[in-house]
Amino acid sequence: MAIVVGHLSTPEGEKALAAAEAEALQRQTRLVVISPGSGGEDVTQRLEAASVEHVVVPGTGDLAEDLVREALEAQAELIVIGLRRRSPVGKLILGSGAQRILLEAPCPVLAVKP
């Protein structure tokens, strides 16, 4: 079992990582971090310092798809996502990654906001 989280260098991403880290420590389980971009080394140092068993997986560019795929592969017990406020027009034009995750997730989803 594992907890899966996507990490972006945003306030929402930082809050999601902090919540996932706390859940992994409380549940004594492994944390799978999807890290698009170059934030993997900082995340690794942070989680090693907190003694969290973890693996950092590079993202493919579609975070919703990555989170669901990794949750399936890791037989995750939880996915943690960060939410941000968006305008109705922004939701219409861009779609909603959070909604895709909620609908396709094979396990419970914890949504946190900054």
Automatic annotation (TrEMBL):
InterPro entries: Rossmann-like_a/b/a_fold (IPR014729), Universal_stress_UspA (IPR006015), UspA (IPR006016). It comes from the Bacteria. Residues 18-113 form the UspA domain. Belongs to the universal stress protein A family. This is Universal stress protein. It comes from Isoptericola sediminis.
